[in-house]
Amino acid sequence: MAEITAALVKELRERTGLGMMECKKALVAAEGDIEKAIDDMRAAGAIKAAKKSGNIAAEGAIGIKLAADGKAGVIIEVNSQTDFLALQDDFKGFVAASLDKAFADSLTDAAPLIAAQEEARLALVSKCGENVNIRRLTRVEGDVVGSYLHGHRIGVLVVLKGGNAELAKDIAMHVAASNPAVLNPSDVSDELVAKEKEIFMALNADKIAGKPANIVENMINGRINKFLAEASLVEQIFIKDGETKVGDLAKKGGAEIVAFVRYEVGEGIDKGEVDFAAEVAAQVAASKQ
Predict the structure, then answer these.
(1) DSSP reduced 3-state for 245
(2) Span 6-44: which CATH code?
(3) Residues 6+ away with beta carbon under 8 Å from 198
(4) What is the pLDDT of residue 3?
């Protein structure tokens, strides 16, 4: 049996695109014969699965799980290449299993979940022919944790101090619809405020020209105050009644909003430019392997 060195594992990883642990296992099984390890991987469909993993996955689903006592919650995003796959039972099963694992282990970061689910992920990729990735995870805890899941694409967790689950769910539903940037106006960064001021002045250059400095300053302050209200959850008008600020709604319910988390499938993912001809050529080449 040939010695399984780090260099050998690295070479197999570079040639197959699989993870270090998968490569090491394959080499052990092949008694250090790298060519046999590659043949075994190809026969198992693992290499095709790894190559699929290089494709951009910007669709998928959000999963949420709450503790029975309503004092903790976990939200995850799992990505696929198409929305069609996100609606299939195999994908849903992987999301559910990943969510259960994250919750049972009280995970607060996606990295250990990704590692724990790698074998199941590769099996799903090999079966469905699409890339699948666990992208992110957040766990929250508090007096009251509520959630809202809009289909499979938008999910929200809300943490309250006081109040009840119904109030938390109402606020979570509002967050899903209104997508606030921050909880409180004071949470908006100085950089964002400066940027908003710059945009306002650029768009209203003709209105500002020739006006006294104090008038201009009042116009800018008015716009910034409006921006802060639009961006912060507690200052937004509750979608269900169109009158009450969300912060006031919480107070009326004997609660204070402590935090919120909002996930939307694919947000922030750079899908890149698609070269259709190159994509077809790559699929044809892959089918011949």
Answers:
(1) strand
(2) 1.10.8.10
(3) none
(4) 82
